[in-house]
Specification:
33% helix; two-stranded parallel sheet; DUF1178; alpha+beta; 2 domains
């Protein structure tokens, strides 16, 4: 999965996840991507800073919340809470359990847990559908 910062013709910026860059291109061509604020389908990738890891302590990213961001954060919190209440926590066995469910080796059910970037990439390549849960401020504590 890849996350892109996107911007519409009205200069609204937002983030969206895609399977790969060609998935973004196909969805844009079919006008399946729309700005969540104004509904515009004239959307392009915005400039993104590369994620560079150094040995120095990473700076924390902060967002000053306006009313719209507060609403979105509340929705994300509700979605995350619903997943946790209605799915089984499998910890670091997420990739293994997701494969078992995908290939019919175990009962289909909702699960959540942790997976490495390599495991996530392998799941995508195998056609196993999943989505990352958002990292919320209270998850950092």
């Amino acid at each position: 999965m890849i996350s892109y910062n996107l911007i519409c013709e009205e200069a609204h910026s937002f983030e969206a996840w895609f399977r790969n860059s060609s998935d973004f291109d196909r969805q844009k061509e079919r006008q399946l991507i729309a700005c969540p604020q104004c509904g515009s389908q004239h959307v392009d990738k915005a400039l993104m800073a590369p994620a560079v890891s150094t040995s120095r302590r990473k700076a924390q990213v902060a967002l000053a919340l306006g009313e719209e961001q507060k609403k979105v954060l509340a929705q994300l919190k509700e979605m995350s809470k619903a997943v946790r209440e209605n799915a089984d926590y499998v910890g670091d066995r997420f990739a293994e359990e997701a494969r078992k469910i995908h290939f019919g080796e175990t009962e289909a059910r909702g699960i959540y847990g942790e997976a490495s970037a390599d495991d996530a990439k392998a799941l995508i390549e195998e056609g196993v559908e999943f989505m990352p849960l958002p990292m919320l401020p209270e998850d950092q504590n």
